[in-house]
UniProtKB/TrEMBL annotation:
PANTHER family: UDP-N-ACETYLMURAMOYL-TRIPEPTIDE--D-ALANYL-D-ALANINE LIGASE. ATP binds at residues 109-115. This is UDP-N-acetylmuramoyl-tripeptide--D-alanyl-D-alanine ligase. The lineage of its organism: Bacteria, Bacillati, Actinomycetota, Actinomycetes, Streptosporangiales. Keywords: ATP-binding, Cell cycle, Cell division, Cell shape, Cell wall biogenesis/degradation, Cytoplasm, Ligase, Nucleotide-binding, Peptidoglycan synthesis. Belongs to the MurCDEF family. MurF subfamily. One of its GO terms (biological process) is peptidoglycan biosynthetic process. Residues 108-295 form the Mur ligase central domain.
Amino acid sequence: MIPMTLNEIAQVVGASPHDVPDPHALVTAPSAVDSRAVVPGGLFAATIGARVDGHDHAAAAIANGAVAVLAARPVGVPALVVDDVQQALGQLARHLLHHISPTVIGLTGSVGKTTTKDLLAQVLERHAPTVATDRSFNNELGLPLTVLRADATTRHLVLEMGAGRKGDLTYLTGLAPPRIGLVLNVGTAHVERMGTGPADVAQAKGELVEALPADGYALLNADDPYVIGMTGRTKARILLYGRSAQAQVRAEHVRLTDRARPAFTLVTPTGRAPVQLDLIGEHQVSNALAAAAAAIVLGLDAAEIADGLTTARRRSAGRLEIVERPDGVTVVNDAYNANPESMRAGLRAAKALAGTRRTVAVLGAMGQQADASRARHAEIGRLVADLRYDVLITVGTGDPHAMAEAARSAGHDLAVHTTGDVTAALTLATALLEPGDVVFVKASSEIGLDACARALADA
């Protein structure tokens, strides 16, 4: 955050100061929407959520060091009152970008956004000051909060951009216009809100490349036909990445180590270099290539990129997070969120990690799958059986039952158990696990299986 007085911020966002003793007081630290996350010198944005009204925590934010509160009404402590707090945060972020001008890299996709963002940030920050989205704060609140962490020294701004419906990326790119746009893939995440199928999802995701300038770069996954179909929607220069021979940035000689970590030769226009990722699953190769493509257009060479990818570590919790228990049980917590594509990738990665060890899957519902939801859950059930998992525990009624039924029908000596809720699933999994097992836990975030995974890891 570049230092700004409360009076300057009020002018930018059109705010009315209330209970502000010193309009020249400086905001010198990033903004926060959680009063517990406020740092001295920051600004607290009082947003209203489904269960929490930030205005009720304004006094606590000031006590924690906030200079003032960005609020929709007076709160009895120093506040800048606006009609719409979310919109005001966006205005403030846009104002900041005009004054510091970093290279903005926007990335979107149905799966892999957070992992790719984390990889790219670790590659870039070895060479220049870089700010990247924290965890998956990729929406209309998270994006401006990320921008407001940048300052005059920031050279690269890596912004994960989520899209729950058409128009979301148009809004986000309006707040932070990217020069580089990275599209990972098109799947079924959020299909319920976007339309009826992948073509509708592609229409929404392509808003990112439409926002790019002519001197920018659209980095497109050559292995995804829906992403390749976006080439005609941008005036930016195009660079393809992927495992396809037509990709300028690609992987050759892909293999998995005995710890299920991918290794490959990175091929780029500047040369080639070996990469050994510290993440599990072959699907991580695509995420690494996406990060490499962005680094290439930013001027890094193949050796520098390969070194950055090899030394990168998992940063965000709940995404193929591995915990080894003292009794030899390995817990693979992938419960941050779920859709069919990420569920398939996670199941395969955990099975590859297990090798000949006994495998247990604890799976809940995948949200927002529209009319195809039951069929997609059944497909996952059959995959669990086909991959030769030993035990499947489903969590919840409805679609998880379809998963269980399909798994039973597929056979392969798979033991299938159904549970009604997270507590019951934890109790059953705890009883069934044996020393040396690998247990994979995944569902959409609203199911709450992250708590189950963490309890299993701590057992």
